[in-house]
Amino acid sequence: MKKINIITPVKDSIELTLQTIDAILSSRFTIPYTYTVYNDYSTPENTKILKEASERLGFTLVNLEDITDHPSPNYLLVLQIAQEKAIEEEAALCLVESDVVVKPDTLQTLFDESLTQPDCGMVAAVTVDKEGEINYPYLYAKGKEDRCFSTRKHLSFCCTLLTESFLKKFSFKLLDPTKSWHDVTISHQSLKQGYKNYLYTSLPVWHQPHGSRPWKQLKYTNPIKYYWLKMINKRDKI
User: Fold this and answer.
1) Burial letters for 182-197: b for 16+ Cβ neighbours within 10 Å, e otherwise?
2) How far apart are CA 64 and CA 121, in angstroms?
3) For residue 134, what are the β-bridge partners?
4) pTM of the predicted structure, to 2 decimals
5) What gap in Å lies between CA 238 and CA 188, rounded to an integer?
6) Contact at 8 Å (CB) between 172 and 85?
7) Which domains does the chain have, with CATH numbers?
8) Nearest 5 degrees, angle CA 162-CA 166-CA 167?
């Protein structure tokens, strides 16, 4: 791998998104990198803010409404575009979601560690709350703080790097288009292809769960309503 391609899918939640962008662009790298924000049908007001930020800060902004009329979420399309670009450029692909704030060395360290871990397909940074406690979606890692371990449980795409080798082995064009999110399937495919997936609890990143999708907070405040809306709206399929 010659470089790292970083992507952030975005739909509104503009304040959190700008925090994510600032943190990534403030990161320290010793290798070449690119950073692309995929704007998935944010409001016109937020799209304007993202455009101004891209011009001011220097990241690439892709407005998905310019390339597809498929309604949000378009996570699958983003993954397919990013995979193709990473393979062409001999790059690792790193996903950082728009409700995550990385530390200055997080992304470079993920890249470096992916090269040292045997048969690495994916490597992720654990997520924590403001108090530094491990939170969703990595509650299974509690009790394993400040270490690295391989896991057969799925890695979320909160802050996760996919190696070039794995990207070449499994095409995202084979993913189920009826699903909204694909981290579980891709994690399992990495293992199926003979790779190992690693979680670093020594590389915590701040995560505000579902900050990019506020309606999912219903899962905790009113679970009956959440699952009812999920069913009738046929959304959030994993």
Assistant:
1) bbebbbebbbeeebbb
2) 28
3) 128
4) 0.89
5) 13
6) no
7) 3-210 (3.90.550.10)
8) 75
Residue ranges of the chain whose pLDDT lies below 70: 210-238
DSSP-assigned letter for residue 99: T
- DSSP-based three-state secondary structure for 57: helix
Q: What is the pLDDT of residues 184-200, one digit of tens each?
A: 999 999 999 999 999 99
Rounded to whole angstroms, how far apart are CA atoms 121 and 36?
Answer: 22
pLDDT of 68-103, one tens digit each? 999 999 999 999 999 999 999 999 999 999 999 999
110's tokens: 């993920």
Name residue, tokens 């709206």. Answer: 233
Q: Under 8 Å CB-to-CB from 223, ≥6 apart: which residues?
A: none
Q: In this predicted structure, what is the pLDDT of residue 238?
A: 46
Other Cβ atoms closer than 10 A to 47: 18
